[in-house]
Structures are given as structure tokens and as C-alpha cells.
Amino acid sequence: MKQLEVTILGQSYLLGCPDGGEQALQAAVAQVDREMTAIRDAGRIKARERIAVLAALNLAYQLVQRPAQAPSPAPAAPAGDSATAAQLQALIDRIDRALEADEAVSRTT
């Protein structure tokens, strides 16, 4: 296993990487960095931990929305998939509101 030094949101991390997985890891790091940078640059949230949570939720939501990749035609999606997506979006919205409220309180104290 190799170790790669990467930078996410201006901070360096040393990550373990299986042999041959360097390109995939670099792509994942770039995607996480883009997501976290976009959240930070929006200006609403400054705490690195909160930015990371929102980025993780956003990326997870994108994965849930992506159709499953299968070599043969994919079976019809279960009826619960759209309900799950709606629930996940509602959760993300709720977390956004809670974090925004927490940031507002932090700024006034």
C-alpha cells in the first residue's frame, strides 16, 4: 500500500492508497476539495468540520441520485427510491438550516 500526500481545502493529508489506485484517489480528493471549496466560498459556513459534513452529505446525495451502473439493462427502480431521495433531500435541507442557525449564534457570541 502506498501513501499519498493530498491537499483538501488548503490542508495536507497523508492517505493510504492501494497499489494502482492513485488515479482514483486523486479524482476523489479533487471532488471532495471542489465540494468543500464551493461550500466555503458560498460564505455561509466557516467551520471546517461543518463544511466537511455538508460536503459529505452533498456527495452522498449525488451518489444516491446516480442510477446504478450495471452491464445489463438495469431493472426498474423500486418504488421507495424516489421517497428515499426526497427524504435525503429533506434531511440535507434540515441540516443546512441547523448549521446556518448555529453559525449565526456563533457569530453573535
TrEMBL record:
GO biological process, one term: division septum assembly
Pfam families: ZapA (PF05164)
Chain's role: Activator of cell division through the inhibition of FtsZ GTPase activity, therefore promoting FtsZ assembly into bundles of protofilaments necessary for the formation of the division Z ring. It is recruited early at mid-cell but it is not essential for cell division.
GO cellular component, one term: cell septum
InterPro entries: Cell_div_ZapA-like (IPR007838), Cell_div_ZapA-like_sf (IPR036192), Cell_div_ZapA_N (IPR042233)
Taxon lineage: Bacteria, Pseudomonadati, Pseudomonadota, Betaproteobacteria, Burkholderiales
UniProt keyword annotations, A-Z: Cell cycle, Cell division, Cytoplasm, Septation
Localization in the cell: Cytoplasm
Official protein name in the record: Cell division protein ZapA
Superkingdom field: Bacteria
Organism: Azohydromonas caseinilytica
Subunit architecture: Homodimer. Interacts with FtsZ.
